[in-house]
Amino acid sequence: MAGFFISHVSKIYEGATPTSTLVDIELTIEDGEFLSILGPSGCGKSTLLEILAGLQRPTSGEIFFGNEKLDGPGIERGVVFQDPSLYPWRTVLRNVELGLELRGMSRSDRREAAQRCLDLVGLHGFEQKYPHQLSGGMRQRAGLARALANRPEVLLMDEPFGAVDHLTRLQLQDDLLHIWEAEKKTVVFVTHDVSEAVYLGDRVVLLSPRPGRIKQIFKVPQPRPRKRDDLELLRIQNEIYAAIVEAKSAESLEFTI
Amino acid sequence: MGRNSHTKRYSWRIILGQVLLLLVMLVVVEYLVRVEIVGSLYLSRPTQVAENIYELFAEGEIYRHLLVTLNEFAAGYLLSVVASIGTGMALVLIPRAESFFRPFLSALMAVPKVTIIPLLMLWLGIGLSHKVAIVFLFCFFTIAFNTITGIKQTAEAHLKVARVLEASWWQIVLKVILPSAAPTIFVSLRVAAATGLVGALFAEMIASKEGLGNLLVQATSLYDTAKAFAIITVVTVVSVLIIAVIDLLEKRIVLRWRSN
Q: Is B223 strand, coil or helix?
């Protein structure tokens, strides 16, 4: 079982002016599901992802992963960061090996596992390059391979394609879907791009900003492979835009996506 | 390609010009001393200096002194590198240690090291341990402060990656923090190597029985100016070689992964 059960999770950042970031998040993420979390900057979507990753603790509420209460990071939950944060002093191959190396796997075994993941993300032939020698899209692929190398049950992805150009982004989305289908992982994908959220997700969770609340959950029942110009997908996108406009007029002027 | 060969030819011209300038300066000095416009007590003929360098090595006198100085330098430097990187790491990694010790460290760093050479003589004599201590002090603070700075530059995102991968505290130190700090530490290693050698030589000049600094003082006290210049030349070459070794290390450890 590799799903999440998120129960009444709230997060308040303490400080001179305590900031309420997430309020009463109530969400079940199914095993094997591709879930998009959509929201503008400042809505706490990255915070929610970091809580799922175990990097932050909620101020109140509980999270269960499978049947166990979540407590700290775990290798079964792979994280792909917005900035892939590869270690510049390691080659691509050694970056991808990192998790296995930390767990003490033998050199030849981890080489093999890392190589498999690099092939999977399309980085065959770039093993001995250093991160600064790669393009932004390739770095993101390496970051994905690093997460996959540990054979996680879940991939937690924090706006992973936010910093690459549009065409590369479309390609990365399709490649991610192929990997998801081949590897059967649960994916939680944070983004601020409506079309990306709809194209990728089985469901789209729309968060409203400051503090982050679940505004609405949209189901995307379309079978895959999907077409980007599928009218049903566009209809869902429009519904989401309408919900965003509604939240904007109701709450603040700054609600932009 | 065309541009490349152009700059290559250009740089050859520069080197040619530099060599010419050097030769002209040497010839001028040679002439000034030969016709006794400048007394040979103050300046030496380059040819005579060259002869003296040859003699130093031919007679074998310099080897012992060279070895003594290098030994003092190597011992002091290596001790200092280990101690200062260790101290720097401890100060950052132990909570609140840095804010507690920083004023003490800054105060100690502010003490001009040369002023305690006589005191160290009193405590340690004028042998090897005296020089090792001075080289140590000359190097310690630079490396320690750069280690602190380097560690603090560790990217928060890199630490997050390690935490997500369930790295232990030691793994984080060895595989994330130290590599992050390495470029900054190397800068100080180079600076400290140069000042450390100066420390060894200076200590020898003040109080010693042997070493290149001692040899230099002997030569000047006998008004053997040519020999003094010969020793200075040897010392300079030694200094350049030490820096070259550190540059080589840096290239192998750090520069491979840095973008231009």
A: coil
Span A89-98, average pLDDT = 93
CA distances from A172 to A72, A149, A210 (A): 29, 18, 30
pLDDT at B51: 92
Tens-place pLDDT, residues B72-127: 999 999 999 999 999 999 999 898 998 999 999 999 999 998 888 889 999 998 98
Q: Which two tokens stand for residue A191?
A: 């983004």
Residue from B158, B165, B257 to probe the interface with A (highest A Cβ count within 10 Å): B165
Q: Which residues pair with B111 in a beta bridge?
A: none
Residues from chain B that touch A133, judged by Cβ atoms under 8 A, are 259
Provide, as residue numbers in chain A, all residues whose Cβ is less than 8 Å from the Cβ of B184. none
- From the list B164, B171, B259, the residue facing A55 with the nearest CB is B164
Whole-number Å distance between alpha carbons of B148 and A125? 38
Output the CA–CA distances (angstroms, integers) from residue A11 to A41, A65, B163, B173, in the order listed.
16, 18, 20, 30
ipTM score assigned to the predicted complex: 0.86
User: What are all long-range contacts of B121-128, with beta carbons under 8 Å and residues at least 24 apart?
Assistant: B121/B206, B121/B207, B126/B207, B126/B208, B126/B209, B127/B209, B128/B71, B128/B72, B128/B75
- pLDDT band at A1; cut points 50, 70, 90: low
Short-list B144, B180, B148, B143, CA closest to B161: B180
Residue A150 in contact with residue A100, Cβ under 8 Å?
yes
Residue whose token pair is 């750090």:
B254
Record: contact B162-A102, CB cut-off 8 A: yes
DSSP calls for B134-152: HHHHHHHHHHHHHHHHHHH
Is B257's CB within 8 Å of A74's CB? no
Is A80 strand, coil or helix? strand
| B139 close to B78: Cβ distance less than 8 angstroms | no
Using a CB–CB cut-off of 8 Å, the residues of A that contact B are: 53-55, 73-75, 77-79, 81, 83, 85, 87-90, 98-99, 101-103, 130-133, 146, 150
Between residues B201 and A66, the one the model is more confident about: B201
> From start to end of chain A, where are the E strands?
4-13, 19-29, 34-38, 60-65, 68-69, 77-80, 154-158, 186-191, 203-208, 213-219
Q: Which residue among B160, B175, B179 sits closest to A55, beta carbon to beta carbon?
A: B160
